[in-house]
Design brief:
Length: about 450
């Protein structure tokens, strides 16, 4: 009797333990074998254990990784809230070019490999050198052994040839030529290392605190990193202060060496996105696919940055999404036009009794299209201004308000000089008056 009871006890205990473990496994979504399930074959087990093949798990098995990912997505409210466009890249940002206002961001401070988008900073330093007069577009740039051996995207520079700065800029902007950007770096600073030092110095001046440059071309190198935010900063600096760069970045096809070297723009948006002004692509096996894309429509200029896109087509698609989002939801509202006359100001002790007040600079703001019509302006003209008054002197202020908040200000300035009415001018006036009277008589 005791033996029979002990037998039943062991069987019942085993059944309870089995049911308990099965229940726990079901809650965790761990595959448990039963006669009603398909058996896990050897290849399925290997796929589950192999991290490099998590997307190739046999369909007869339960995909643990897929289930975990979906749960993480559902649990992460921030991911859904902060990425309504459902971008799949590693990081992205959309800014308005003139103000730098961030219109959309997704992992914008994620430090990633920039690949050839690095060249945006290289181009910025080159354009600054052009504008300062250090170099000119017609200067001949030699090719060193170092430049000719760069590899990657290039136009196969030879150490015996020289191209102009203009030609090399064209090669860098259109074909992302590594050999040309290194040749330009050496031409400017004597060596690529010295040029890279300038790149990092300029990055710090611009507030690019996510960035460390190790080279001027973007070929993968440990520690060579930046972020979508920082790429947007240097892209804005280049486009806003050196708009002539678009003479190169908007070219889709061109050639060098008397037509022997054909150039095709790596940025496909130049050809098929309305208003595209550039700017720079980049891709390596580690960085994946990056893009800084810029476009202007109806006075609104936008910069969209995509980093670590999974494929080339995805980076262009997601850049389009960002740009479309900006153009569909925002507008540039002109608030004031430079040199527009807004009023007059009385002048005391001047050769003239008043002077016209004009707007010192163009003023505009980026607002949501739904906010249009809620802007008011307030003008203040200074009183008791005593001559002399100089052309361009501040004589008032114009401010703009939306929803009880000041959204913009601009100085009102004198449109001409008003000399002080002194003794010499009084005598001159008397002689002019008498001379006029004598002529009339």
């Amino acid at each position: 009797m005791k033996k029979k009871f002990l037998k039943y006890f062991i069987i019942c205990t085993a059944v309870i333990l089995f049911m308990s473990s099965a229940s726990e496994a079901k809650e965790l979504d761990i595959p448990v074998w039963s006669s009603q399930n398909n058996k896990l074959n050897e290849s399925s087990i290997e796929n589950i254990l192999d991290e490099d093949n998590t997307n190739e798990i046999n369909t007869n098995s339960i995909n643990v990784n897929t289930e975990v990912e979906s749960l993480e997505t559902l649990d992460s409210k921030d991911a859904i809230t902060n990425n309504p466009l459902k971008l799949t890249c590693g990081g992205a940002i959309l800014i308005e070019q003139d103000s730098g206002k961030v219109l959309y961001d997704y992992n914008m401070h994620e430090q990633l490999r920039p690949a050839s988008v690095t060249k945006v900073m290289s181009l910025l330093l080159i354009m600054e050198a052009l504008d300062s007069g250090r170099i000119s577009l017609t200067d001949k740039v030699p090719c060193s052994e170092n430049a000719s051996n760069m590899g990657g995207s290039q136009i196969w520079l030879d150490t015996t040839e020289e191209l102009t700065v203009d030609e090399m800029l064209k090669a860098v902007c259109i074909a992302s030529a590594n050999d040309c950007v290194v040749a330009l770096a050496e031409f400017l600073e004597g060596s690529e290392d010295a040029f890279v030092e300038k790149m990092n110095q300029r990055a710090q001046e611009l507030g690019m605190y996510d960035t460390t440059f190790k080279n001027c071309h973007g070929i993968d190198e440990d520690g060579h990193i930046t972020s979508p935010y920082d790429i947007a900063i240097m892209s804005r600096e280049l486009l806003k202060n050196h708009p002539q760069i678009t003479n190169y970045t908007t070219i889709y096809m061109d050639s060098l060496r008397d037509g022997k070297s054909e150039l095709v723009n790596t940025n496909k948006l130049v050809r098929n996105y309305e208003g595209c002004t550039g700017l720079k692509t980049g891709s390596t096996s580690l960085a994946l696919f990056n893009l800084s894309a810029s476009a202007t429509r109806n006075g609104l200029s936008l910069i969209a940055v995509i980093m670590k896109g999974q494929t080339s087509s995805i980076r262009f698609q997601e850049a389009r999404q960002l740009l479309d989002y900006g153009f569909n939801n925002y507008q540039y509202k002109e608030l004031a036009k430079k040199d527009a006359l807004v009023g007059t100001v009385d002048i005391q002790k001047g050769l003239e009794n008043s002077v016209d007040a004009v707007i010192s600079n163009d003023v505009g703001i980026v607002i949501k299209k739904s906010e249009d019509g809620n802007i008011t302006q307030n003008m203040e003209l200074f009183n008791n201004i005593v001559a002399p008054v100089s052309k361009g002197q501040k004589i008032g202020e114009l401010s703009f308000t939306m929803n009880n908040q000041i959204i913009g200000k601009v100085d009102l300035i004198s449109n001409k000089d008003i000399p002080k009415y002194g003794l010499g001018i009084m005598i001159k006036r008397v002689y002019e008056t008498w001379f006029a009277l004598l002529r009339n008589n």
